[in-house]
Each structure stands twice: as structure tokens, then as C-alpha cells.
Write a structure and sequence with these properties.
By secondary structure, the protein is mainly beta. It has 2 helices and 25 strands. Strand 18 and strand 19 form a beta hairpin. Belongs to the internalin family.
């Protein structure tokens, strides 16, 4: 169906019988119906009006696919299509030679540089290499742009060529070539001048929209300083007034923030009495501040105010730290040590001897007192025996604890005192009896 001026392929939709389809030299721009022909092996679409073949990306295992003489610039959608093609003999499996494209015109003034953007993309989405260029154009290192300088006034039709030759992983070769036409309109140099006026802060941030002044060359211009809230003018870069020139001019008004009101920091007790001199913080309007309390001897901070963090503003601010008196705690400088305490070098041995029982009266020589006098009270014949209890010993602590000083001597003193008292009483009683005298206790 070549040379038949075919433009509508809808009758081919779903056709599973055709394996070889040749549609050269027609007016085809929509080839979507071909994508439904699942048994297609060979496809010729040379010299048509195709700008894209993306509609065919679902086809697989074609042996030949020719698209010469069209206007195709983007191959990135066809990567899987190309990788699925089957190599057959020495045939060039996929071919897109002699593509052409006319780009929209670029307009510049005399002396300016015209830039054309490379319209091509390879299978991986990268610009295809520019191999040659007219009119002293310069190709960028990444092949994305081509620049044309020093062009004469009027219309210049610049051209450049793009080529790509590659082979798929399955060995199918592919050739692509394109001629790009870039119209460039060069106008005479401007007879008017422009002044661009910017309003920025010290960091280069734009504080107000820029102004563009224009006028005839050699006419006077006058820029205007804008009033910007919370900012004041610091300096002007460029000439705020002057004459228009052929070259564009720039005037930049640079502003700085105005000073905010000071922040007073006070240090008082709970009664409001000043404990330390107040501090004053200063800064630019809107800038942040942070206040920390002082350390004051003998006082500790009672509470932290809620406005220790804030921003400098148009009004005075105060931050007040309230302290309360610290309670002193008295601690001895050195521990108190008993200088008289004696620590044994060796553990005290367990006692091995006990005090014997002591009889307070002579054996069997007890004289009844009832016969001495009827006026005296009678006493029972009693033998008083006193003995010391065996010492209580803690086996576990015998080797660790010292006996308390005076415990043993006090017990012995009580026993001896009782013994002397009884012995003395007995002696006096016997003596009085022998003398025939009464004895009263």
C-alpha cells in the first residue's frame, strides 16, 4: 500500500493475518491500529508524517522496522520494543534515517546569543550526539544546547545534525540520523534602555517586587526607595539616578532590619528586692533571644519565667528571675573520733574459769537469835549463798567484740559488798552474845 496516500489505518485493527506490512510514502501520523497486529514480523513506514512511534511499543519480536524520512526525535518509549527485536541476516533491524524537524524561531537582539535546545532523546532518555552545526554554532559538552553568536540582523536559518548508531543486546543494529533546522530572528540593537531595580536584604533575599524602568537612550531615569516594614535602608548598589543606555542597568537597594526594643533581665528575691544588677539585651527586630539565669551566692532560683525565649519587638520587654534564700546545712569538717577507744590487736579469748560459790557464814555455826531477847525479832536459820552467773558468750561474736569497760568489775563490787556486810553482821552478833548484850539491826 505504498504511494497510495493512505492516512487512516483503522481497518487494520485486530488483523492477525498480516505478517509483512509496507506503508511507505503515505500521510500517516496515527499508527495505533498497527499495535493490534500480533503476528506482524516486518514493518515499513518510511516517508510519512510520523513524529512518534510510541504507539508501537507493545509489539514484540519484529524482525525489521523501518521509519526513514519522518520527524521522530524521541526514542525513549521504544527501548523494550527495540530490545525484543529478532536479528535476521545482515539486515539493519531498526532504522530511522533522514529524520527532519523544524524548531520554533528564536528571537534575539543584535549582539545577543541565540540558544537552540537539542530536541532528541535516545533509548535511555539522554540527548543524542550533535555531530555538526552551521553558522559557527557551539555545542555544549552535554549536547543539550547549541549556541549561535554574532549573527547578522534579519533571519538566519541555522542547522545542525544528530546521529546515533547502536546495537541491541540481541545483536540487532539501529541507525538514526536527524537534521534540525533552527530559525533565528536577529533584530537591530535596542534604541531604548532599561533599568532593573531590586529591593533586597543583606543576605540577598528579595523584600519587595523588582521594578523595571525603560526609556530612550540618554534620557534621565530616577529610581525610588521603597518603605519596607521593620527594615531600614543600609546602602544602594548602582546608580539610583542617571541616563538610559543601550546596555541594561541594575540598581539594588539593600536593607537591614531595624533595632528592636531592649529586653531587661532582672534578678530579685520573693519580695522584689534586686539581688544583682539587671542586664539589657539588644537585637534586630524579629530576631530571637534566649535568657539564662545567673548564679547568686546564697540564693537559688525559685522559678523560671515563661518568656526566657522570645523575639525582639517594637516594645520593651522584661524577664524576671525570682530567687529564694538557700538554707545552709552544717556539716563537720572532719568526723569525731573517740581518742580513748582502744582497739584490740587480737580477739579476746573465751573465759575458761568461773567464780566459785562463796558461802557467807561459817559451816554449821549458825546461832539462833530468838534466845537473845524476846523483844528482838526472830530470824530463820538461813544460809545465804551468792554465786556469779556464768558469762553469756556469743560464739559468733567472741572473736569480733570487746567486753564493755566496767561490766565485770561492777558485778564483783556488788558481790564483795554483800559479803562484807553479812560477815560484819555475823561478827557483831557473836560478839554481843558473848558479852550478854542485845543487838539490834
Amino acid at each position: 500500500m505504498s504511494w497510495n496516500q493512505v492516512s487512516d489505518l483503522s481497518p487494520l485493527t485486530g488483523n492477525d493475518y498480516i505478517e509483512n506490512l509496507q506503508l511507505n510514502h503515505n500521510h500517516l501520523s496515527n499508527i495505533a491500529p498497527i499495535s493490534t497486529m500480533k503476528n506482524l514480523n516486518v514493518l515499513y513506514l518510511n516517508q510519512n508524517n510520523l513524529t512518534s512511534i510510541e504507539a508501537l511499543k507493545s509489539l514484540r519480536h519484529l524482525q525489521l522496522a523501518y521509519f526513514d524520512g519522518n520527524h521522530i526525535t524521541d526514542l525513549s518509549p521504544m527501548k523494550n520494543f527495540y530490545e525484543s527485536m529478532v536479528k535476521i541476516g545482515d539486515y539493519q533491524g531498526m532504522q530511522l534515517q533522514n529524520q527532519t524537524i523544524n524548531l520554533p524561531p528564536v528571537t534575539v537582539q543584535k549582539g545577543e546569543t541565540a540558544v537552540s535546545n537539542n530536541p532528541t532523546l535516545d533509548f535511555n532518555g539522554n540527548p543524542m550526539p550533535v555531530t555538526s552545526v552551521s553558522d559557527a554554532g557551539k555545542i555544549s559538552d552535554d549536547h543539550k544546547t547549541i549556541s549561535f553568536s554574532n549573527l547578522p540582523e534579519g533571519l538566519t536559518t541555522a542547522t545542525y545534525n544528530v546521529e546515533l548508531h547502536t546495537t541491541s543486546n540481541s545483536g540487532v543494529p539501529m541507525d538514526y540520523s536527524l537534521k534540525v533546522t533552527q530559525p533565528i530572528q536577529v533584530r537591530p540593537a535596542a534604541k531604548t534602555g532599561r533599568v532593573h531595580v531590586f529591593y533586597k536584604d543583606e543576605m540577598g533575599k528579595e523584600l519587595a517586587s523588582q521594578e523595571v524602568l525603560s526609556g530612550n537612550i540618554d534620557d534621565n531615569y530616577q529610581t525610588v526607595q521603597k518603605q519596607i516594614d521593620n527594615y531600614q535602608l543600609k546602602k544602594v548598589e548602582g546608580s539610583p539616578s542617571g541616563k538610559y543606555t543601550a546596555a541594561n542597568q541594575t540598581v539594588t537597594y539593600i536593607y537591614e532590619k531595624v533595632d528592636g526594643k531592649p529586653v531587661t533581665v532582672k534578678y530579685v528575691d520573693t519580695s522584689g528586692n534586686e539581688l544583682a544588677p539587671a542586664d539589657s539585651l539588644t537585637g534586630k527586630l524579629g530576631d530571637p533571644f534566649h535568657v539564662v539565669p545567673k548564679k547568686i551566692d546564697g540564693w537559688h532560683l525559685k522559678s523560671i519565667p515563661t518568656n526566657v525565649d522570645g523575639q525582639f519587638s517594637e516594645v520593651n520587654q522584661a524577664v524576671t528571675f525570682v530567687y529564694e534564700e538557700a538554707k545552709a546545712s552544717i556539716l563537720p569538717e572532719k568526723p569525731i573520733i573517740n581518742q580513748n577507744q582502744v582497739m584490740p590487736l587480737d580477739p579476746i579469748e573465751k573465759p575458761t574459769k568461773h567464780l566459785k560459790e562463796i558461802s557467807c557464814l561459817e559451816k554449821d555455826r549458825i546461832i539462833p537469835l530468838a534466845s537473845v531477847s524476846s523483844d528482838l525479832p526472830s530470824f530463820q536459820n538461813t544460809v545465804v549463798k551468792t554465786s556469779l552467773a556464768k558469762p553469756i558468750t556469743n560464739k559468733k561474736n567472741t572473736q569480733k567484740l570487746l567486753p564493755k569497760t566496767g561490766d565485770t568489775s561492777s558485778a564483783l563490787l556488788y558481790v564483795l559488798s554483800g559479803f562484807i556486810f553479812i560477815l560484819t553482821s555475823w561478827f557483831l552478833l557473836k560478839r554481843k552474845r558473848m558479852n550478854g548484850q542485845s543487838f539490834h539491826l
